[in-house]
Amino acid sequence: PTTIYLKDYTPFGFTVDDVHLTFDLSPNATRVTSRITFSPNPDAADHTFFLHGEELKLIRASIDGQPVLPNVTDKGLTCDVPNAPFVWEAEVEVDPAGNTALEGLYMSNGMYCTQCEAEGFRKITYYPDRPDVMSTFTVRINGTEKVMLSNGNPTDQGDGFAEWHDPWPKPAYLFALVAGDLINHPDRFTTKSGKDVELNIWVRPGDEGKCAFGMEALKKSMTWDEDVYGREYDLDVFNIVAVDDFNMGAMENKGLNIFNSSCVLASPETSTDDNFERIEAIIAHEYFHNWTGNRITCRDWFQLCLKEGLTVFRDAQFTADMRSEPVKRIRDVIDLRGRQFPEDNGPLSHPVRPESFVEINNFYTATVYEKGAELIGMLKTLVGDEAYAKALDLYFDRHDGDAATIEDWLQVFADATGRDLSQFKRWYSQAGTPRVAVSEDYSEGIYTLTLKQSTPATPGQDTKQPQVIPVAVGLLGPNGDEVAETRILELTEAEQSFTFDGLAAKPTPSILRGFSAPVILEHDTSSAQRAFLLSHDTDPFNRWDAGRSLARETLLTMITDGAAPSGAYLDGVQAVLRDDTLDPAYRALMLGLPGQSELAAALHDGGTTPDPQAIWSATETLRQAQAQHMQDLLPRLHGEAQVSAPYLPDADQSGRRALGSAALSLITRLDGGALAAAEYAKADNMTLQLSALGCLIRAGKGEAELQAFYDQWKDDRLVIDKWFGLQVSLADPEHTATVAQTLTQHADFNWKNPNRFRAVFGALAMNHAGFHHASGTAYELLAEWLIQLDPVNPQTTARMCSAFQTWRRYDEGCQTLIGAQLDRIAATPQLSRDVTEMITRIRG
Ligand code: DPP
Ligand code: ZN
């Protein structure tokens, strides 16, 4: 396979002035006719006329009306062309019904749809399928489907056809087409400047009752982007379509967003509070791409973080504004530590802006998205809110209509603020999670904080340069009062000291407030100090994190020394949970424990080989201790969930349910499931129903409820995904692989549907002790199914390979077992480029 490098970028030899596409739809033989005006690109040195094209049957081609015979390979075609503007026409045939990879034009439940990011358009027609080639598109769809949609505005429609025109030049990855028997949930929105926009969410018949929440989220997103970023919508219509078979969450195609149905359809009976919050965030994310991604796109795929990091950052701001800022921040950091840190500290580690790839689909990662968003947050912290706003205005002004780079992005900040960002740029090129070691000194009223940064070697990067790390620090006095307000320390050297004076006594530092940088803090501090921060810190994030680090510390000593659960932790958390003035959602987060994979990483970092079984047992023991310790408090916490008002998936109600559910899971450890069974029986929304069912499964009960749940929901595919996932993720480690294996035999296990495949195998990989069971059966089961899925859907298969990325942490036995499965996958004939790259990188 060919490796593509950032340093090799050259512009395409031609510009595209306009694109006309005609689709004659037919399930196995859709004809696509393209008419494209090309002109020689004066900025390009190479004028080879190469058009990408894969899995296409070329019927005919012509230039300026004269038939031509291009040179066709399995990657595309070349052709001799005039040294002046010319009109290229081609007719190709594609097979949407046979397209199981869900890339290009394919069918899902009898409906036509497309996915072109990153490189799917080349499976629709011959084209320069690269993001820096932008053009207006005019599309005609001929077919018998009731609804036929494409990008932009509708221009004409009649019996058997529909025409669309998108006036905004766009790269081909933003092209979309949908045709099928769909029903719309319509609404309208008036922009700030008075433009009337028609909004639609299109779904399969039967799903029309699950669109209202998504529509509200869309309107809120539109208002928010006007208010906060000054960005208005720019077409007459905005369409969203829900599709069942989809490799990712959703796609921001211009004016025609296509969503995995799990990321848009919602109802209180079938969706949990977490589903609602996620749907709201994803709708916002895709909508925000209209400016950060579509109006300003990426020059090449190495710049993916330019649109994704920024758009994730924007959707996080939106969620914080709609709900609770500290709760959103804590949840994002849990996610970052749970998904991005393992990636950044293992064989798949790569910079936020990668410098090479074999298959770009393998780089839609937590590093590009979530660490990419952290970089935007740090930039904002470093320059301040006002300068950030000014820089963003300049970015939109200067680059509207461009295919831009990270250099362009940073230049805007440099110009708007006068700041030199050359050191900041290292965040984009250096992979790995920086460690920041803290030491303290106090004498004669002066407190000195010494910070030392280092980043471990990552694949291809043996040594690292110091990065600029904004460390937000506040100081607390002995009685818990804040004696120094939050100050941003800019750590730019390998080691640097910062002083605070005028202090009457040695303070307790609260470091990395709000998680001001995506680093691992190494601070050798006593549990008394952590407990002190847990009860006094004014920064809600650090207060939570103090509890988290106490939990981590006690779990680690339980695992390594067989110690008993720490009283300081149990008392400290109990005190926070008793405080009714605190947001229930926040208190629910306080009850959480570090993930078992995170504990494995911490052990490995400290030089101990993690034993997944021991980690699981310690976690169970600590949970049991929590339950006993808080026995008297739990009924009151559980009572928080009893909301008498009609169900609303808002921050207030969902926080109360989260706390109630966390309490129920502890109560189940004491009463054997009596309360959970009662709660299950009376639950009238999916959040409470699923949490009660989860408690029962964890307690080794709930067989009857599982069956009842299935019977109740067997016709709702999104709920049945939950049914599959829950059984695997909560299975006892001794039986996890068997449970997963049995479920793959279930009549409803439609493995070609990515949501269903992920429900089982995503959950298998997440069940840490079950996945890493010493028998190796889970590894074997996953490998077997990855091998089966690869020829059908390489993209989803490759994504799931990352389950093996942490394999070098574990003992030799595990490594041998996983190594054998990696070898087995690698030896599979005709393995896809996607999976080949993943396995090669994971094996190292
Ligand atoms: N660009 C999509 C998103 O992140 C994924 N393909 O919104
Ligand atoms: Zn995105």
TrEMBL record:
<feature type="domain" description="Peptidase M1 alanyl aminopeptidase C-terminal">
    <location>
        <begin position="528"/>
        <end position="842"/>
    </location>
</feature>
<keyword id="KW-0031">Aminopeptidase</keyword>
<dbReference type="InterPro" id="IPR024601">
    <property type="entry name" value="Peptidase_M1_pepN_C"/>
</dbReference>
<dbReference type="InterPro" id="IPR042097">
    <property type="entry name" value="Aminopeptidase_N-like_N_sf"/>
</dbReference>
<keyword id="KW-0482">Metalloprotease</keyword>
<dbReference type="GO" id="GO:0016285">
    <property type="term" value="F:alanyl aminopeptidase activity"/>
</dbReference>
<feature type="domain" description="Peptidase M1 membrane alanine aminopeptidase">
    <location>
        <begin position="213"/>
        <end position="427"/>
    </location>
</feature>
<feature type="domain" description="Peptidase M1 alanyl aminopeptidase Ig-like fold">
    <location>
        <begin position="432"/>
        <end position="523"/>
    </location>
</feature>
<dbReference type="Pfam" id="PF17900">
    <property type="entry name" value="Peptidase_M1_N"/>
</dbReference>
<dbReference type="InterPro" id="IPR045357">
    <property type="entry name" value="Aminopeptidase_N-like_N"/>
</dbReference>
<keyword id="KW-0479">Metal-binding</keyword>
<keyword id="KW-0645">Protease</keyword>
<feature type="domain" description="Aminopeptidase N-like N-terminal">
    <location>
        <begin position="21"/>
        <end position="174"/>
    </location>
</feature>
<dbReference type="Pfam" id="PF17432">
    <property type="entry name" value="DUF3458_C"/>
</dbReference>
<dbReference type="InterPro" id="IPR027268">
    <property type="entry name" value="Peptidase_M4/M1_CTD_sf"/>
</dbReference>
<dbReference type="Pfam" id="PF01433">
    <property type="entry name" value="Peptidase_M1"/>
</dbReference>
<keyword id="KW-0862">Zinc</keyword>
<keyword id="KW-0378">Hydrolase</keyword>
<dbReference type="InterPro" id="IPR035414">
    <property type="entry name" value="Peptidase_M1_pepN_Ig-like"/>
</dbReference>
<comment type="similarity">
    <text>Belongs to the peptidase M1 family.</text>
</comment>
<protein>
    <recommendedName>
        <fullName>Aminopeptidase N</fullName>
        <ecNumber>3.4.11.2</ecNumber>
    </recommendedName>
</protein>
<dbReference type="InterPro" id="IPR014782">
    <property type="entry name" value="Peptidase_M1_dom"/>
</dbReference>
<dbReference type="GO" id="GO:0008270">
    <property type="term" value="F:zinc ion binding"/>
</dbReference>
<dbReference type="Pfam" id="PF11940">
    <property type="entry name" value="DUF3458"/>
</dbReference>
<dbReference type="GO" id="GO:0006508">
    <property type="term" value="P:proteolysis"/>
</dbReference>
<dbReference type="InterPro" id="IPR038438">
    <property type="entry name" value="PepN_Ig-like_sf"/>
</dbReference>
<dbReference type="InterPro" id="IPR037144">
    <property type="entry name" value="Peptidase_M1_pepN_C_sf"/>
</dbReference>
<dbReference type="InterPro" id="IPR012779">
    <property type="entry name" value="Peptidase_M1_pepN"/>
</dbReference>
<dbReference type="InterPro" id="IPR001930">
    <property type="entry name" value="Peptidase_M1"/>
</dbReference>
<dbReference type="GO" id="GO:0008237">
    <property type="term" value="F:metallopeptidase activity"/>
</dbReference>
